[in-house]
Specification:
Length: about 130
């Protein structure tokens, strides 16, 4: 599960993907388990939920380069694009509304575009978190 955003601009609506992962880590009781993984240039926490092993990932790059971290982590952990969930902001959704999308285009989102390019696939599931148009 990759929370897309701009690492240096945490707390902004554009980095809501990272905030969602912080909350998920708290709910899965691994919030103290974040560590920097230089191999994929990201903060990583490992968790388990409902019999699944999860890799939580917050890229330490700008949004336009998040895909490099996601692709590196996929290689390190043996994940296919269809195993990956991207959590990202969506300007076209009202603040706080969410939607799940399976595959398809980036719809103008540079972080998703970066992931599609780096993984050579658009098969990732996406949790689109509405931020409205501030």
């Amino acid at each position: 599960v990759a929370g897309l955003g701009n690492y240096g601009l945490r707390g902004t609506r554009h980095s809501v993907g990272m905030a969602v992962l912080d909350q998920l880590a708290r709910q899965l009781a691994v919030a103290e388990g974040w560590r920097t993984d230089r191999r994929c240039c990201a903060d990583v926490a490992l968790a388990a939920a409902h019999g699944l092993e999860l890799v939580l990932l917050k890229p330490r790059r700008l949004m336009n380069l998040n895909g490099l971290s996601v692709a590196s982590a996929a290689e390190i952990y043996g994940l296919r694009p269809e195993d990956i969930y991207l959590v990202h902001d969506d300007l076209d959704k009202a603040l706080g509304k969410v939607a799940i999308k399976l595959g398809g285009s980036a719809r103008g989102h540079n972080g998703v575009r970066s992931c599609i390019s780096a993984l050579h696939s658009n098969e990732m599931r996406r949790l689109r978190v509405g931020i409205g148009r501030p």
